[in-house]
Amino acid sequence: MKNFILKNTKSLLASAIMLSATGCSDLKENPDFINPSTFYQSAKELELGVNAVYDDLTMGNGDWSNHFYNRYVFECLAGYQIGWEKGPLQYNLGNISASDDYINAYWQQCYRSIDRANNLIETADKIQDPANADKVKRIKAEAQFLRGFYYYELVRYFDNPPLKITSTQSYNDLPSNSGGKQKVLEQIYADCSAAASVLPASYSGADAGRATKWAAKTLLMKAQLWGQKWAEAKATSEDIINNSGLSLYADFGSNFDLNHKNQGERIFEGQGSAKANSTEYTNHSAHFNPEDFPSDLGGAGWSWLSATKDFRMSYKSSDKRIDATFIESYPTGRTAKNSKGEFPIVKWSEKADYNLSRFGGLVDPNANPNNPSELIFSKAWSGKLVELNTNWSTTEKNTIYLRYADVLLGHSEACNEVGQGDAFASINKLRERAGLEPLKGLSQAALRDAIVDEIIHEFAFEQVGYPELRRKSKFGGNPDYLGAYIKHYSDTYKVGRTVKAKDYVLPIPLIEIQGNPNVKQNPEWQ
């Protein structure tokens, strides 16, 4: 963090203030020199600050290699999601280092927002705005949730991030990771519990999308799973199931469309809207649009990321999640136009050829545009993240971070591990929606395997697979789900990748190790 402390100390909250023109109207000094102790005098001003803490969940900070895209890249370590751009390609091969650009960017984005949250929490405790005391408490609780959220994001990839819960004041104000993962998890438990006690169950109007009580409890449950606090995770998930009023959408696809933003089982999501703010769009379509989708139809992108044909084939044909998870058909510009002068429609088929190259799995460019049997492809494009007919810079899609399926699968896992309660009930709710047969009569180990399989197929392209696989695995141990995925990928596509201990945790950035004597590198990377 040392490399950006000066920037954050000098102008950490300037971007928060500049989010709103009304916020700037009262300022007399240059925003680069705004002092939080003199600017934040009311709940309204404090709210501008917390908006900036949400900002790293989208592209609001202008980082092209943004928070969620870096997660895209990390996901390629598991092998089922692939990419031809240099970052995803190297992760597919297991070629990463402590000086990796994506790791550096992700680390700085998380700590930038953590430091902002720390500052707001301290400031909220000092603000004198009696008429809006409840709002100040709510904003502080939002900052606590967000601090917990970003620390969770760090734990799930790095295991032992340094913990800091006070704002940065100088170059010498450097945190330590001596307490390891457990110390960070304890802070997440505390932040989420505190936030849940204050935050409302829901919002309306312009506040839709802010952290809720149930978002805080869902994050608490997920952190408890990481800490193997099975009884506590079971109790937290049952609280949400019994008291939140949340339920699954009948249609799985409602989790990812534009008509259900910030509603129902979508518990927490990063807000993206080019209409509202030209810098607040996501760049999902830029990375996941099919390579051969005609730009004449309005879409655009580089098609860096997809999933393997083999992964797409791992879904049962009856699985109702397929239609929303993948792009099953689309117009192609790779062949000639058909007899009607239109771009022909290609459809996914396991009969289509496939390889790992950039153009592998696309329709044959020499296919007869009037013969449906030739208009087939096998690449597994994401249906969750794109708007096919929309340019990437005008997309309106949000980024989903927490949804009710997290709670249900967490509940089944906790029940299974603690040996109490109905471990099948919650996972079977997801399977029922997917049109799959219910699970029953499995041993603890077999149900553990089934839960992992369900996580991967329920959350494909939501960038949770790699951290969940590694959470449940041990290098050379049993079970070793991550190792099995990597080996399957390597064997299937002959990439010559060997499973190694470094695959199971990301390295703490070299720039942090060199600049902060209080931080020690993860053992696997020493």
Automatic annotation (TrEMBL):
Assigned keywords, A-Z: Cell outer membrane, Membrane, Signal
Domain spans labelled SusD-like N-terminal: 93-222
Record-stated family: Belongs to the SusD family.
SUPFAM superfamilies: TPR-like
Name of the protein described by the UniProt record: Starch-binding associating with outer membrane
Subcellular location: Cell outer membrane
Gene3D superfamilies per UniProt: 1.25.40.390
One Gene Ontology term, aspect cellular component: cell outer membrane
Originating species: Arcicella rosea
A family per Pfam: SusD_RagB
Span of domain RagB/SusD: 306-525
Organism phylogeny: Bacteria, Pseudomonadati, Bacteroidota, Cytophagia, Cytophagales
